[in-house]
Structure formats: structure tokens, C-alpha cells
Amino acid sequence: MFALVQSGSITKFFSGNQAVTIGDTQYPKSIFTLWSKAEREAISIYEVVFDNSNKKDEKWYINTNPSYAFAITDGVGQVTSTYGTATAKAHADTLWTAQDETDGKGTEGEVATRGLKYNLIQTIKNQAAGELSKTDWYITRKSDAGTAVPSAITTHRAAVRTKAASMETAITNAANTPALETLYTYTTNDAGVTSRPLGELPTLES
Fold first, then answer.
1. Do the bridges between strand 45-51 and strand 76-82 make them parallel or antiparallel, or are there none, so unpaired?
2. Are 60 and 181 in contact (CB under 8 A)?
3. pTM over 0.70
4. Alpha-carbon gap, residue 73 to 53, rounded angstroms
5. CA–CA distance, 20 with 133 (Å, rounded to integer)
6. CB atoms < 10 A from the CB of 90, how many?
């Protein structure tokens, strides 16, 4: 991404894949690939430098729109794209208020917007159901034909339910959005084993 700077202000952005016109002069798109940085800056086109230090994982946070600024430091001009402070997504459900009910938006005390916890728990439930569905046929066969369910399958199904319950509890007990993010953050220990605090549902292959 490139920016045109005129009189110290950014006036236009370029994607870098098309010809550009500055004043009465048209330049081919090759200026973005064949020209040197100095050659482009001589006609006031600067490559945008992205500062993502404030940008956070959009699964957990709402990022601001990037802002762009041109500055000259020690005689060198630079266009920078930066983000403001990200806002954590609500970890708990948002409820309708008395004023909302007065305004006809919803009933006070009922759920207006689901928070992260609810959605994450629903995902765990769906994943557990998906894993159990792989062995449901054993249960159906036992019901239809009386064939015993192998002990390994019974053990596995119980382990899935137990782990799903503990994962849901961990999510429910998370104090805030950063705590939820921590549950899902993978790290690798000295032995090279990668894991996350929330753990994983057992699978037949594991």
C-alpha cells in the first residue's frame, strides 16, 4: 500500500497495482515494483509502514479502524498506519434494560446479545456431540439387537462428556475476556509439547 503526500498531508492511497496520475503526469504501475524507494518518494509517493502493535486477535477484541499519518524524522519522511486501543468483546451476555423495554427494544432482563462465554460453550457442546456421533451406532445397535457396546467405546464416550463438562466450567469461571483468551492460547513447553489451558476433547484417534 502506498500514499501520496502533498504539502505534508496524505491526499491519496494506491494499492500498487495500477497506473497513477499526479497533477498532469501519469505514471505506469511499474513505479511500485521497478522504481526504488527514493525514486518514488521523489514524486511524493511513500510506502505505508504498518504498526500492528495495538492490533489484537479479532476473536476476542474489536479493533479500531487504522489511522494514517505522515511525519518527517531526521529528514526522512514516513507514512505510518496505526491502530488505537482495542476493545475487549463482551464475555457475558448483555441484557435488555428497563429503558430498552420502555423504548420497545426488548424485555428487561432478557438476553439482548450473547457474550463470548455462551458462544464458546455452544461450540464445545457441538464438538462433543460431533465426537459422540461417531459411536452412536454402537448405542443404536445395542438398542436394536442387544449387542453389547465395547468397553473402550463406553469409556471414550464417558471421557468426552467429562472433558466437555470441565471445559464448559472453565469457560464459565473465566473472569473476563483476557482470561478466556488465555484458556485458548497454545504454548509449547521445553519438551516440545504444544497445549492450551482449556485442553482438548478426547477423540477415538487420540
1. parallel
2. yes
3. yes
4. 20
5. 58
6. 15
